[in-house]
Amino acid sequence: MIVCVCNNISDREIRQAVDLGISSMPELRRDLGVGTCCGKCVSCARETLHEALEAK
Ligand code: FES
């Protein structure tokens, strides 16, 4: 599922980023560009990030 339409980032890519050591929204923003355009994806991206961190 695409989380960030503007930057074409899927939940899978967010999970992969967490596996590689990302643990916060600022890091996700910096490394993948999530939420850097319209910002509509931020709450969904945050939820996906936290789920991935909990599953670690
Ligand atoms: Fe992510 Fe627009 S959908 S910044």
Automatic annotation (TrEMBL):
Keyword Transferase among record annotations: no
Gene Ontology MF, one: metal ion binding
Residue ranges constituting the BFD-like [2Fe-2S]-binding domain according to the UniProt record: 2-50
Membrane-traversing stretches: none
Keyword terms, alphabetized: 2Fe-2S, Electron transport, Iron, Iron-sulfur, Metal-binding, Transport
UniProt keyword Transport, yes or no: yes
Recorded family membership: Belongs to the Bfd family.
Protein's recorded name: Bacterioferritin-associated ferredoxin
Organism: Zemynaea arenosa
